[in-house]
């Protein structure tokens, strides 16, 4: 589960998953309709259209109304287009307290493209009106990555440094393959340096044919190349990256 969003009226509050259980204490004047859990937290769809099962559980005591739909992969899921090629059934359901619902997710048509397709599955609690005047009602949205990976499709990560002005630069990860790579964490080290010049702990996806960059401040001196070490879904990666024009 990548994102949990708690809505109030037209706005929303972004918060980590662990805060869900603390909402009642943080917002004593509000109500929490339910606390949703999901398994698995990543969906891998079959290319032939065979359904994959996703289980949603209401960990709260009150029933909740839940809406499910798939969107195109986007950093901003609120602006993402609907993914009509992905079917999620049932699209709307009422989930009682401590109850569980099975959702079946599948492609409407078999995948023919040789490159992996990526989507987001949004499982959203529909806010209900509060029982008391001026009370806040919070609802949860679960955001699951969805991948349809053709047989033989593989990621091909290539690291490089893109210079900016002065000592400013970017560490670039280009994915030249046909499937995604997920970076859990990475560090960038200088020649013989024990301390990294860049350390990233936030996970990031790089889809097939796309790239991701991280700003870095290059070390002073006659450094010719750097070493990047990354924990990924492909295992631990290590590569030397030369400084352009260095």
Structural class: mainly beta
Give me the CATH fold name of the largest domain: Immunoglobulin-like
- Helix share of residues? under 10%
> Quaternary status of these chains?
single chain
- So what's the CATH class of the largest domain? Mainly Beta
- The CATH homologous superfamily of the largest domain corresponds to Immunoglobulins
Order of helices and strands: EEHEEEEEEEEEEEEEEEEEEE
Count up the domains.
2
Walk me through the structure.
The protein has 246 residues and is an all-beta fold. It folds into two domains: 4-148, Immunoglobulin-like, CATH 2.60.40; 157-242, Sandwich (Immunoglobulin-like). It is 2% helix and 52% strand. It has one helix and 21 strands. The strands form five sheets. Strands 1, 2, 5, 7, 9, 11 and 13 form a seven-stranded mixed beta sheet that branches. Strands 16, 17, 18, 20 and 21 form a five-stranded antiparallel beta sheet that branches. Strands 4-6-10-8 form a four-stranded antiparallel beta sheet, with no helix packed on it. A hairpin with an 8-residue loop joins strand 16 (181-189) and strand 17. The protein starts with a strand and ends with a strand.
């Amino acid at each position: 589960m990548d994102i949990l969003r708690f809505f109030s009226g037209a706005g929303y509050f972004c918060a980590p998953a662990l805060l869900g259980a603390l909402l009642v204490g943080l917002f004593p004047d509000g109500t929490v309709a339910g606390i949703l859990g999901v398994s698995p937290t990543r969906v891998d769809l079959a290319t032939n259209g065979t359904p994959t099962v996703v289980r949603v559980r209401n960990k709260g005591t009150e029933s909740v109304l839940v809406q499910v739909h798939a969107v195109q992969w986007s950093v901003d899921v609120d602006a993402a287009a609907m993914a009509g090629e992905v079917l999620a059934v049932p699209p709307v359901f009422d989930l009682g307290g401590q109850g569980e619902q099975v959702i079946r997710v599948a492609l409407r048509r078999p995948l023919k493209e040789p490159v992996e397709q990526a989507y987001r599955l949004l499982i959203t609690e529909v806010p209900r009106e509060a029982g008391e005047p001026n009370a806040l009602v919070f609802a949860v949205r679960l955001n699951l990555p969805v991948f349809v990976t053709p047989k033989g499709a593989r990621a091909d990560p290539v690291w490089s440094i893109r210079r900016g002005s002065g000592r400013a630069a970017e560490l670039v990860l280009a994915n030249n393959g046909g499937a995604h790579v997920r970076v859990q964490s990475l560090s960038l080290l200088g020649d013989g340096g024990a301390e990294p010049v860049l350390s990233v702990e936030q996970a990031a996806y790089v889809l097939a044919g796309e790239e991701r960059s991280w700003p870095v401040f290059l070390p002073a001196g006659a450094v010719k190349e750097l070493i990047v070490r990354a924990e990924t879904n492909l295992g631990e990666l290590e590569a030397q990256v030369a400084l352009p024009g260095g």
